[in-house]
């Protein structure tokens, strides 16, 4: 447990992705089975312990500590597991009587069979044996609070670093292996056979697109490409197949390979007969009309599905690729061939829950540019479209983000001129820079016009611009709050940013009543006095009038290609 | 004589009426006794100063030779009598020269501990228990969540990181007096022999430690020719850890050596990537142990988390009270300011 605790303690503070990979790789390389496998399971969220609840921890601690001291400590620390881990009294014991510390494997294996009534006693004994970091890790692990910024993809990259295979190769076998992953590690280290899929409907790593740049059009030939709408939904993969006993297994995966089937029971019927693996966009389609991302978000935010929600927010998949069909892998086939096969599949199995993403006809780049500008003119549901996708007709399906095959060409972002109000220090390489900016626009206040914060951005600028903004922040600080500086923002003095963003929606969680999606700094307007920045009314009009394209903030790369 | 006749709290600090002297006054006074060289305890501008020779030397390099009208050195174990009151100095184990001051009048004994610790420190004399009737204690880490870890583990954390990330500068924030030098000594004890680089602000105090016979190995002040110092250890004052000065280094991993690093939210708030829990103050258990060992029946708590320690004393059947003294909290090991209002700023978006 202690080695695992040391690892996650270090990971929790480490902001650099590469450093996390090194820390994980080193841990996997020097930790025996099954310990490392359970660590992998813990990090990727594959473990759950149903009996361990915060109330139990509170009870155990209060039996052992003075309530006044515990109260003062909890107030100071602010986190129950951490307070419990630190305050847990350690009995004085002779040097030679060091109790045996539980390994992570012991914890996982014991908890799998332990009854609820035995848990408090066992947990207390473990806490007695561990040190502060060990106790913290144990409590975080069993209460499900182990959020330390390690994605499944990152863990797989670290496993790949153990041996000759690429991260995508690890991804390929991932869904057929289970904790503690002995066969996976053996293969990853190059001394075992490749684990065979035991899952008849496994996840297959997805192919991602690059953002197209203006000069790309000079080198790319429009005739080589097929265009589709870029749907503003969630990228999913659906797979259905029969297992050894002939039962149909149907699964829905997120683009990172998480099984999200349970959240979409209304898709199970539509998918169960396809006997294939398809790639597509998950959308809410009501009466044949694709709804905007904001509507989809309402469904995503719920953890439990109920009948009312299923009726009001019906999920559907708009398919654009086929990866597996007719009992064979289609990923080696060119896109045109796959598309033809997909068309046939939809003809046979299509329904209001499953349809085909249409192609966008065009002759040259200017033609496509026009289509992109006005999807409605081509009869598409414009409010659910955020641009076009370009796919090379002869490209095979390659996992990851290979260059030159798929491009996304988003519609132009919205922009607004806003005033820098607060700046916060960045992390890692940027920790000596004020690199996270809160910006605002004007609104009428009780004492005349005032700025109201409408968003936060921490990229979009060049390194040179970052240095300029940083210097500006330092010279024009009016107030400090820990890592945050308030920056001059009057009508005449301050820094105006041209902020680009993908959408805007009404939100009660924000002071301004608006939530901006994916904001970034497009330009520094040194030339512009703050009084000329935009007003909140402009944004409100946009949020209401243009609601069709607008939605709550989220990292677009998490859900689109 | 009652204890409060011998020592009482005035706005300037702890005052001893029969001898007309202050201990660690926060404002300039005629006559001051100083426990140790941290700037919140040792201030410039007093008339006469009585302290250990090391503390006087520290005040000299920090404030210049004329930091007081006159000075008198008292070694550990020695005492000075003013009128009917006797003052003796005993090691406090906090930093070089740090002393507890025993104030005696007749049979009444009060110990003013200043800041102290019980954990081993190769750079200063170890704490010595002085039996007394009233023990005046600090409570910087006066909550039971503070149990400082074994020092070896913390240094290993640093050395392991150097092995895993040999391309990156390891930049450690540490208080200029005491913590920085103790850290150097601990790193040497762990067998690290390469040069340790320091920020210019640490130089005079580090050289002073060395001049007092503390072996710190090869310590080099950073110069322009040193380049990015990839894979090297650099120690700087906490205020410099995120300063523009750090841009010269190779993708620095920022570490911070402080007892506060025990609390995750504190470490994260400072943007620390490698928190090292190394403190020059007694942790909770050492505060409680020390109170018991002095045999004192009455405890006065000067600064820190007074409430918890006073509560603990009451449960133990000891008389205890907070002195609510204003102006203390080490140079930096005082609790870092919380960005209360930053929530507002960040929550706005
Ligand atoms: Zn001090
Ligand atoms: Zn102090």
Q: Which architecture of the largest domain in chain B would the CATH scheme give at its second level?
A: 4-Layer Sandwich
- CATH topology of the largest domain in chain B, which one? Metallo-beta-lactamase, Chain A
CATH H-level name of the largest domain in chain B... which superfamily? Ribonuclease Z/Hydroxyacylglutathione hydrolase-like
Helical stretch tally of chain B? 9
Number of domains of chain A: 3
Q: What is the tally of beta strands of chain B?
A: 19
Distance between the termini of chain A: 39 Å
CATH class of the largest domain in chain A reads Alpha Beta
Largest sheet of chain B: 7 strands, mixed
Radius of gyration of chain B: 21 Å
Helical amount of chain B: 10-25%
Uncertain residue segments of chain A: 546-561
The N- and C-terminal alpha carbons of chain B lie at a distance of 63 Å
Strand order of the largest sheet of chain B: 7-8-9-10-11-18-19
Beta-strand residue fraction of chain B? 15-25%
CATH architecture of the largest domain in chain A, by name, is 2-Layer Sandwich
Can you offer a commentary on this structure?
- The complex is a heterodimer of chains A (561) and B (349).
- Chain A has three domains: 2-142, DNA ligase, ATP-dependent, N-terminal domain (DNA ligase i, domain 1); 210-410, DNA ligase/mRNA capping enzyme (D-amino Acid Aminotransferase, Chain A, domain 1); 414-543, OB fold (Dihydrolipoamide Acetyltransferase, E2P) (Beta Barrel).
- Helix content of chain A is 34%, strand content 23%.
- Chain A has 20 helices and 20 strands.
- In chain A, the strands form four sheets. In chain A, strands 3, 4, 5, 6, 7, 8 and 9 form a seven-stranded mixed β-sheet that branches. In chain A, strands 12, 13, 14, 15, 16, 17 and 20 form a seven-stranded antiparallel β-sheet that branches.
- Chain A is globular, with a radius of gyration of 27 Å.
- The two termini of chain A are 39 Å apart.
- Chain B has 349 residues and is α/β, with parallel strands linked by helices.
- Chain B has two domains: 3-145 and 280-332, Ribonuclease Z/Hydroxyacylglutathione hydrolase-like (Metallo-beta-lactamase, Chain A, 4-Layer Sandwich); 151-276, Rossmann fold (3-Layer(aba) Sandwich), CATH 3.40.50.
- Chain B has helices at residues 3-6, 53-63, 151-164, 179-189, 203-211, 264-269, 284-294, 306-315, 342-347, and strands at residues 8-10, 13-16, 21-23, 31-33, 46-51, 68-73, 79-82, 85-91, 99-105, 108-112, 134-139, 170-173, 196-198, 219-221, 233-236, 253-257, 274-276, 298-304, 319-322.
- In chain B, strand 13, helix 5 (203-211) and strand 14 (219-221) form a beta-alpha-beta unit.
- Residues 334-349 of chain B have low confidence and may be disordered.
- The interface between A and B is large, with 54 and 50 residues.
- One zinc ion binds at residues 36, 38, 41, 94, 115, 330 of chain B.
- The site of one zinc ion has 6 residues of chain B, from loops.
């Amino acid at each position: 447990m202690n080695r695992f605790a040391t690892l996650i303690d270090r990971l929790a503070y480490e902001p650099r992705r590469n450093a996390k990979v090194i820390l994980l790789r080193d841990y996997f390389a020097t930790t025996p089975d099954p310990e490392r496998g359970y660590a992998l399971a813990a990090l990727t969220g594959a473990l759950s312990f149903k009996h361990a609840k915060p109330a139990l921890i509170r009870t155990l601690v209060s039996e052992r500590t003075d309530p006044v001291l515990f109260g003062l400590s909890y107030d100071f620390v602010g986190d129950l597991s951490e307070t419990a881990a630190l305050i847990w009294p350690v009995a004085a014991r002779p040097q030679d009587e060091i109790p045996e510390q539980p390994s992570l494997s012991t914890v996982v294996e014991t908890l799998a069979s332990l009854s609820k009534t035995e848990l408090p006693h066992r947990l207390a004994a473990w806490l007695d044996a561990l040190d502060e970091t060990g106790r913290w890790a144990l409590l975080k692990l069993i209460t499900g609070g182990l959020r330390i910024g390690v994605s499944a993809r990152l863990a797989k990259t670290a496993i790949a670093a153990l041996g000759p295979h690429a991260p995508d190769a690890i991804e390929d076998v991932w869904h057929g292996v289970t904790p503690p992953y002995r066969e996976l590690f053996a293969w990853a280290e190059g001394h075992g056979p490749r684990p065979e899929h035991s899952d008849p409907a496994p996840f297959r790593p997805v192919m991602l697109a690059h953002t197209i740049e203006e000069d790309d059009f000079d080198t790319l030939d429009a005739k080589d490409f097929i265009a589709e709408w870029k749907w503003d939904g969630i990228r999913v993969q659906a797979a259905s197949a029969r297992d050894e006993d002939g039962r149909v297994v149907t699964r829905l995966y997120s683009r990172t390979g998480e099984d999200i089937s349970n959240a979409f029971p209304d898709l199970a019927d539509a998918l169960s007969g396809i006997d294939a693996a398809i790639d597509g966009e998950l959308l809410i389609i009501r009466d044949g009309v694709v709804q905007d991302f904001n509507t989809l978000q309402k469904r995503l935010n719920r953890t439990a599905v109920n009948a009312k929600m299923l009726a009001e927010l019906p999920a559907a998949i708009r398919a654009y690729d086929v990866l597996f069909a007719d009992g064979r892998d289609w990923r080696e086939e060119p896109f045109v061939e796959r598309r033809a096969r997909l068309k046939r599949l939809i003809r046979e199995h299509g329904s209001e829950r499953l349809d085909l993403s249409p192609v966008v006809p065009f002759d040259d780049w200017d033609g496509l540019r026009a289509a992109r500008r006005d999807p409605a003119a081509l009869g598409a549901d414009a409010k659910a479209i955020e641009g076009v996708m370009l796919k090379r007709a002869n490209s095979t399906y390659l996992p990851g983000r290979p260059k030159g095959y798929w491009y996304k060409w988003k519609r132009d972002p919205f922009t607004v001129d806003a005033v820098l109000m607060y700046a916060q220090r960045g992390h890692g390489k940027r920790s000596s820079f004020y690199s996270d900016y809160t910006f605002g626009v004007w609104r009428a206040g009780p004492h005349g016009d005032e700025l109201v914060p409408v968003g936060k951005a921490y990229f979009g600028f060049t390194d040179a611009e970052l240095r300029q903004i940083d210097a500006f922040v330092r010279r024009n600080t009016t107030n400090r709050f820990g890592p945050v500086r308030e920056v001059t923002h009057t009508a005449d003095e301050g820094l105006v940013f041209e902020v680009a963003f993908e959408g805007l929606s009404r939100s009660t969680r924000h002071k301004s009543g608006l939530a901006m999606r994916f904001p970034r700094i497009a330009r520094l307007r040194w030339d512009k006095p703050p009084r000329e920045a935009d007003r909140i009314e402009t944004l409100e009009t946009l949020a209401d009038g243009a609601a069709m394209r607008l939605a709550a903030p989220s990292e677009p790369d998490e859900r689109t290609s | 004589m009652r204890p409060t006749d011998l020592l009482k709290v005035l706005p300037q600090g702890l005052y001893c009426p029969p001898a007309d002297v202050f201990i660690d006054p926060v404002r300039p006074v005629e006559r001051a006794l100083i426990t140790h060289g941290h700037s919140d305890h040792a201030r410039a501008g007093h008339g006469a100063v009585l302290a250990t020779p090391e503390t006087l030397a520290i005040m000299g390099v920090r404030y210049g030779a004329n930091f007081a009208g006159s000075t008198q050195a008292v070694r550990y174990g020695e005492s000075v009598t003013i009128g009917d009151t006797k003052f003796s100095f005993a090691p406090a184990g906090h930093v070089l020269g740090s002393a507890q001051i025993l104030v005696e009048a007749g049979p009444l004994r009060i110990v003013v501990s200043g800041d102290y610790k019980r954990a081993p420190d190769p750079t200063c004399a170890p704490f010595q228990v002085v039996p007394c009737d009233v023990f005046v204690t600090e409570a910087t880490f006066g909550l039971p969540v503070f149990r400082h870890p074994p020092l070896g583990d913390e240094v290993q954390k640093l050395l392991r990181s150097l092995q895993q990330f040999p391309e990156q500068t390891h930049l450690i924030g540490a208080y200029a007096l005491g913590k920085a030098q103790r850290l150097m000594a601990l790193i040497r004890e762990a067998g690290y022999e390469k040069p340790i680089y320091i920020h210019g602000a640490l130089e005079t105090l580090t050289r002073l430690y060395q001049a007092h016979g503390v072996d710190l190995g090869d310590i080099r002040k950073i110069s322009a020719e040193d380049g990015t110092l990839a894979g090297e250890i650099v120690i700087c004052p906490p205020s410099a850890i995120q300063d523009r000065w750090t841009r010269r280094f190779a993708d620095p991993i920022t570490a911070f050596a402080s007892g506060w690093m025990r609390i995750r939210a504190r470490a994260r708030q400072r943007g620390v990537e490698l928190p090292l829990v190394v403190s020059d103050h007694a942790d909770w258990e050492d505060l409680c142990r020390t109170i018991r060992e002095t045999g004192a029946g009455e405890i006065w708590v000067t600064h820190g988390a007074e409430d918890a320690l006073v509560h603990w004393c009451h449960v133990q059947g000891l008389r205890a009270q907070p002195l609510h003294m204003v102006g203390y909290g080490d140079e930096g090991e005082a609790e870092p300011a919380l960005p209360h209002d930053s929530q507002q700023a960040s929550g706005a978006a």
